[in-house]
Amino acid sequence: MIARLILGLGLACAAPALAADVVKPLKIPAGKTFATVRGTIKGDAGVDYRIAAAQGQTLHLLFKPSNRSCYFNVYAPGADAAAHIGSSAGNEFGQNPTQAGVYRAQVYLMRNAARRHETCRYSLSVELSGGDDQAAQEACRSNAATMYGVKPKAITLGGLVRTAEGASIDAKADKGAEGVKDLRCLFKPDGGFDHIMAMTSDEKPRQPWSRPGPRR
Questions:
Q1: 205 prior amide bond cis, ω within 30
Q2: What digits encode the pLDDT tens for the residues 72-82?
Q3: Starting at the edge strand that comes first in sequence, how are the strands of the sheet with 57-65 ordered?
Q4: Cα–chain center distance at 73
Q5: Cβ(23)–Cβ(48) below 8 Å
Q6: CB under 8 Å to 134, separation ≥6 — which residues?
Q7: Among residues 47, 123, 162, 186, which is most buried (max CB within 10 A)?
Q8: Which CA distances in Å does 178 have to 142, 150, 155, 173?
Q9: Domain locations in the chain?
Q10: Lowest mean pLDDT: which of 64-68, 74-78, 153-157, 210-214?
């Protein structure tokens, strides 16, 4: 009985503090594959970072805390159980290939430290590379060329920006004497092409364009 009580107390001290975490999107700048965020938590107030990934990418996370009782857990898209538990697996996580969806990186203080209202300053670095970036750019270029009636080489593309709702690419279509038109290619959460939105202010409002489906 005493042994079980001691074991239970030990597990309680090692468990993460449970509280309503602040949810923050962790976005990588357009055209980049790397980003770092810094923050501070105190007591049982944690932070839940959301990282949108496409199918088949390489994800790498590096966590640097100031407090030895401060860790991070990682959850795959839609998962309730952690794929990485920092208190036992350490401050580095890698996934190759990724699933399509939103990964969660939960920063927290262990329960014993949280009860003492300790503070943790930290940095969380994320690197997300590879995957379907090139395919998305090709889809944007092809569909934009069709929509604006120009050759694919007349389409200039920006970087792929991922969000929890999907992804987007800002681009320009050079129509010669008619000028350069701004546009945005939008993609579904699974990476598939959705539609193009005209962004140039002097264009008449119109419905977003999408490639017609096969005739039946």
A1: no
A2: 999 999 999 99
A3: 34-42, 119-130, 57-65, 92-95
A4: 15
A5: yes
A6: none
A7: 162
A8: 20, 11, 14, 10
A9: 15-130, 133-198
A10: 210-214
Q: What is the pLDDT of residues 121-135, one digit of tens each?
A: 999 999 988 766 777
d(Cα 51, Cα 24) in Å, to the nearest integer? Answer: 9
Q: What's the confidence (pLDDT) of residue 134?
A: 73
Q: 120 with 70: CB under 8 angstroms?
A: yes
CA distance 199 to 158: 14
pLDDT band at 155 (very low <50, low <70, confident <90, very high): very high
The DSSP code for 203 is S
Region 187-191: what's the mean pLDDT? 83
Q: What's the maximum distance between 2 C-alpha atoms anywhere in the chain?
A: 86
CATH number for the domain formed by residue range(s) 15-130: 2.60.120.380
Q: How many residues does the chain have?
A: 216
Residues 6+ apart with CB under 8 A from 62: 91, 92, 124, 125
User: How many Å is the Cα radius of gyration of the chain?
Assistant: 23
Coil, strand or helix at 80:
coil
| Closest of 68, 17, 15 to residue 45, by C-alpha | 17
Contact 157, 169 (CB under 8 A): yes
Rounded Cα–Cα distance for residues 52 and 164 (Å): 6
With a threshold of 0.70, does the pTM exceed it? Answer: no
